[in-house]
């Protein structure tokens, strides 16, 4: 079984934006970074959640996938008090069949982001 690494120009470290292997694509966590400037978008948790999900959706689209192909996500929040506001925006992207999800609070995220979202997508047979 071979793996295909999808590198991204905006990675903040030595990692792939996504890896395809064995019928799945594993997407690295995405922050609410503007791809043009590599800086956090304004708008706090709402703006960052929208952008993080847009970044995930963009990586999926480059591989011929959509949010409907996502089977699992993990959401990392700097403040669990942001859960409801993140959840509202998240539900606008994953609205057909919700993927399984874990949401955890963390002490800190890169660039002092409010949210980071990673995903696993199923590849078409």
Kindly describe this structure.
The chain has 125 residues and is of the alpha+beta class. The protein has one domain: 60s Ribosomal Protein L30, Chain: A (2-Layer Sandwich), CATH 3.30.1330.40. It contains 2 helices and 8 strands. The strands form 2 sheets. The chain has a 6-stranded mixed beta sheet with strand order 1-2-3-8-6-7. The protein has a two-stranded antiparallel sheet with strand order 4-5. The two termini are 15 Å apart. The relative contact order is 0.23. The mean pLDDT is 92.
| Whole-number total of structural domains | 1
**Class by SSE composition:** alpha+beta
Morphology call:
globular
The strand order across the widest sheet is: 1-2-3-8-6-7
Q: Which CATH architecture would you pick? A: 2-Layer Sandwich
Profile the largest sheet. Answer: 6 strands, mixed
Number of helices: 2
Roughly what fraction of the amino acids lie in strands? 25-35%
